[in-house]
Each structure stands twice: as structure tokens, then as C-alpha cells.
Design a protein that fits this description.
With about 230 residues, the protein is mainly β. The protein has one helix and twelve strands; from the N terminus they run H-E-E-E-E-E-E-E-E-E-E-E-E.
């Protein structure tokens, strides 16, 4: 039963889980060099809720480290916790009216399922590829990735495509779809609002499972804090 509760937490998260809020599909951008950021959000399903907090730092300018976790609670079940570590670099940074790409690798651990040093979890890698158009008024992100599930030993291919659309100097609209080669796919739409431009943003999304076993849907609410320089 604990596994079912945990599955609620990762149901709508393919291998490229830890993109800039509110995206699931990642972008070819990094946290500001010499600084850190914090992203946190709540995702609410019909029968469960999850909360995530993911600090990320970029000490060298082109190597971003993310370490954080999430806690999920399904109705009638004990809460479960996931821990995440990810490293990401860029081979070509995204520029206005240009394109960029990079590589991210990471692991997700589920200690409640199998306590001890060999915690069950997923290992993943993906390539983010982004395109800027119309002076950044439209930016398209695509991902192609791989995921190894430690519990089952299965390998999966993950994919995603999303767009961000500047609706107002402080308002960004997002739309995306993502999934894997096993027939699961999802979609979500939402907005991000810059309360303090280039420093503090809030966002909200609605998502729906599009294919595969199940009929998941969710709403999410998040924040993103991105200071310019910390060290």
C-alpha cells in the first residue's frame, strides 16, 4: 500500500521532473552562476497531495546542482518521502532568437519502501533542447530522456514538449505534454506571475492524464525565488 501512495507522487513526473516551475519539461537554462534558487510547490490530486522543495545552486557558472525532496500523502495511507539529487550542464546556452541544449542526470530515492543504504528509486538522464522566437515572446522546450526503475529493473524512454508564451511583461503562459514509451502521456496548462521581476514568481497549473492506464488529474501551486548573486 505504501507503494501505491508513493506512485501518486511520481505519477505525473517522468525522468525530467525538475524543470523550472511550473514546467515538467526542462529548459536549456541554469540558475544564475554564483547563486542559488528555491522552487517549491504543492500538487493536489483527487485522492492525494504532494509538497516539494528543491533548492538548486550553480557555483561554477555551468554546473547546476539540485538537492531536495517531496512528501506525498494519499487518503488512508501513511505519508511517503522522496529525495532527489540532480546535476545539469549546458553545451550551448539558450539565447534570444537562438537555441540551446544541455544534459541533466539524477536520481530519486524512496526510503520508506526499502530502508537502508540500497533505497529503491529511479536513475535518469535527459537532454533539454530549447528554441527562442520573436525576441523571447515564444520559447519552445523539448526533452528526450532515459529512466531506469530500480524496483522493476525496467528502462524507459521519456519525452516532453512545452511552450512558454509572454502574455504580459509579468505574466507567462505555459502549455506542455510529456510522457514515456510505455503509453503514458500527460498534459498541463498554467501561468507564472512575476511578483518581483527576476526575483520572485508564483504559478498555478492544471494537468490531466491523456493516455495510459488510469485517469489522473491535478492542480498545482508553486513559488520560485531566484536571487542574482549569493557568493
Amino acid at each position: 500500500m505504501k507503494f501505491k501512495a508513493l506512485a501518486c507522487a511520481v505519477l505525473a513526473i517522468p525522468s525530467f521532473a525538475f524543470a523550472a516551475r511550473p514546467f515538467v519539461t526542462d529548459d536549456a537554462r541554469l540558475t544564475t552562476g554564483g547563486s542559488c534558487q528555491l522552487e517549491s510547490w504543492m500538487r493536489i490530486y483527487p485522492n492525494s497531495t504532494e509538497i516539494w522543495a528543491l533548492p538548486a545552486c550553480n557555483p561554477t557558472g555551468n554546473l547546476e546542482f539540485t538537492f531536495g525532496g517531496g512528501r506525498a500523502k494519499a487518503d488512508g495511507e501513511q505519508a511517503t518521502t522522496d529525495y532527489v539529487f540532480q546535476a545539469k550542464t549546458l553545451f550551448r546556452p539558450l539565447e534570444t532568437n537562438g537555441w540551446g541544449w544541455g544534459l541533466a542526470v539524477g536520481t530519486i530515492r524512496h526510503p520508506e519502501i526499502n530502508p537502508g543504504p540500497n533505497m529503491l528509486g529511479n536513475t535518469y538522464a535527459y537532454i533539454p533542447l530549447s528554441f527562442s522566437m520573436y525576441d523571447d515572446k515564444v520559447i519552445v522546450h523539448t526533452n528526450l530522456g532515459w529512466l531506469k526503475d530500480k524496483a522493476s529493473g525496467l528502462n524507459s524512454t521519456s519525452w516532453g514538449i512545452g511552450g512558454e508564451f509572454k502574455l504580459h511583461p509579468r505574466v507567462l503562459g505555459i502549455a506542455e505534454t510529456f510522457g514515456d514509451n510505455r503509453g503514458l502521456s500527460y498534459g498541463q496548462v498554467g501561468v507564472r506571475y512575476s511578483v518581483i521581476p527576476d526575483l520572485f514568481q508564483v504559478d498555478a497549473t492544471f494537468g490531466q492524464q491523456l493516455s495510459g492506464e488510469g485517469n489522473s488529474h491535478w492542480v498545482s501551486f508553486g513559488i520560485r525565488y531566484t536571487p542574482d548573486k549569493l557568493f
